[in-house]
Design goal:
- It contains twelve helices and twelve strands.
- The chain is an alpha/beta fold.
- It folds into two domains: about 120 residues, no CATH class; about 240 residues, phage-related protein like fold.
- Strands 1, 4, 9, 10 and 11 form a five-stranded mixed β-sheet that branches. It has a five-stranded mixed β-sheet with strand order 5-12-8-6-7.
- Helix 2 packs antiparallel against helix 3.
- The chain starts with a helix and ends with a strand.
């Protein structure tokens, strides 16, 4: 169903279509999953639009009863005003206080139209969060989704290739297809930082910039570490619940190691990168210079760093010290509650040290979802 078609549905039709999608998502392949995800987004958008219209009609009727006048014109003015107000310095200051205290009275007092649920977030917060996730090299490349609950993603373990068939030729045999399903269960990633009273006393943008940037990046970093651990934990052969991640063993730093790993990637892994500890990168470059390699040991691939991957010098036999793969094809990060983070402040535990603890929380599911999308390089 196209987005234009979805935007004409009523609430009953939206619920019926949502149930239809829920019934087929478990067995969906990657292409089908992409289409389902896009349709779910459009259904949620249409649902929110209908609920907003219903709420506004209630207010419009009440204003007509009171004899306010041209309700429609006033409604449009209010909507426009609220969008502008959430980005004013006054509202940004009020939102910073809301983050600290959990009390949204000041925010709501500034809005020209009552808003049910959570108060609007200033655009600068979205920009800060987006930038923080993009700063994390691995998570900036991982495909993201925003579907509620556990996410089941189907993948192909084996299947017959397509064939060219001419009219009148023998019938095509049914495909011998073996499928697997990855169950991605979201979990809370939490991070606590300590800030001084001086930082806590900051107002508006300065406070929001520090808190959101610091905690979101730390959480994104932990998400990357978690995903790396999941890749390392995958077996070399696909099972019905886990895609296979082959491995290449190389006990020394040498030209051709990354190329050998690339050779085992699937055709769908079209945008591979090399993931490794910075110390391993240094070892590769040192060997390149010492041996006067006339080629790039990374085969021209981008290198992204993660220091939970063991450095080559610290790796024992069998340990992974580099991973080659396509993060956009082979992994998914699902955010059931969106990719913003929630906060709690503790200004009592460390009050004698004039410190305040800030706890950030992000709900996210991470998983490897495609066979041979990654190859481990082990010692």
């Amino acid at each position: 169903m196209t987005k234009d078609e979805i935007m004409t549905l009523d609430m009953e039709q939206i619920e019926a279509r949502s149930q239809e999608l829920a019934a087929v998502i478990d067995g969906a392949d990657r292409e089908q999953f992409d289409a389902i995800e896009e349709e779910v987004r459009s259904l949620e958008e249409r649902r929110a639009e209908i609920l907003a219209e219903i709420e506004q009609r209630k207010k419009d009727v009440a204003e007509v009863v009171k004899g306010v006048g041209d309700v429609i014109e006033k409604t449009e003015e209010r909507k426009h005003s609220n969008m502008e107000i959430r980005n004013t310095p006054e509202y940004v200051n009020a939102f910073a206080e809301y983050i600290k205290s959990g009390k949204d009275t000041e925010c709501r007092a500034l809005l020209t139209e009552n808003v049910s649920g959570t108060v609007p977030v200033p655009e600068l917060v979205y920009d800060i969060v987006k930038t923080a996730w993009e700063r994390e090299g691995i998570m900036s490349l991982v495909r993201k989704s925003y579907l509620r609950g556990n996410l089941k993603v189907g993948f192909e373990i084996s299947g017959d290739e397509a064939i060219a068939h001419t009219e009148g030729a023998a019938a095509i045999s049914p495909e011998n297809l073996v499928l697997g399903v990855v169950n991605i269960v979201p979990a809370s990633i939490k991070k606590a930082v300590q800030i001084s009273d001086e930082v806590y006393d900051l107002r508006g943008e300065a406070f929001l910039q520090y808190i959101y940037d610091e905690l979101t990046y730390r959480i994104a970093k932990k998400a990357a570490d978690t995903l790396i651990a999941k890749i390392e934990a995958c077996g070399t052969v696909s099972t019905t619940t886990c895609p296979g991640v082959p491995k290449v063993s190389a006990s020394s730093i040498a030209v051709g190691t990354v190329a050998a790993a690339m050779a085992q990637l699937s055709d769908e892994a079209a945008n591979p990168v090399v993931m490794m500890n910075k110390a391993s990168w240094g070892a590769f470059k040192a060997a390149q210079y010492a041996n006067q390699f006339n080629v790039d040991p990374f085969e021209g691939l981008p290198v992204v760093f993660n220091n939970t991957i063991k450095a080559f010098s610290a790796a024992s036999t069998g340990n992974t010290y580099a991973i080659v793969g396509d993060l956009g094809h082979g992994a998914i990060a699902n955010f059931p509650d969106g990719d913003g983070i929630s906060f709690k402040f503790d200004d009592l535990t460390l009050k004698k040290q004039d410190l305040i603890e800030v706890f950030g929380r992000q709900y996210v599911g991470l998983g490897v979802v495609a066979p041979n999308a990654f190859v481990k390089i082990t010692k």
